[in-house]
Amino acid sequence: MRRAYNSVLKLPQLSVCSQCGAPALPHRVCPACGFYKGRQVITVEAAG
């Protein structure tokens, strides 16, 4: 019974990045483009 609460846990909600439209955690830098609140915070290298 003490493990019954584990089924209630939820995954973190994702928001949409305003720059690139990729899903990102709210109030965090977008991992796809590196923008936060409309300005470039980190430089993201292109994979490939």
Task: Outline the structure in words.
The protein has 48 residues and is mainly beta. The protein is 0% helix and 17% strand. The protein has no helices and four strands. It has strands at 15-16, 23-24, 35-36, 39-40. The protein has a two-stranded antiparallel ribbon with strand order 1-2. The chain is elongated.
Task: Please count the beta strands (DSSP E, at least 2 residues each).
Answer: 4
Instruction: Give me the strand/helix succession.
Output: EEEE
What structural class do helix, strand and pairing data support?
mainly beta
Mean pLDDT: 85
Assign an overall shape: elongated
Estimate the helix proportion, in percent. Answer: under 10%
Distance between the termini: 48 Å
Poorly predicted segments = none
| Strand neighbour order, sheet with most strands | 1-2
Radius of gyration: 16 Å
Number of domains: 1
Can you tag this structure with a few keywords?
48 residues, mainly beta, 0% helix
Summarize the structure.
With 48 residues, the chain is mainly beta. The chain is built from no helices and 4 strands.
Layout: helices, strands, pairs:
Elements: E1 15-16, E2 23-24, E3 35-36, E4 39-40
Antiparallel strand pairs: 1-2, 3-4
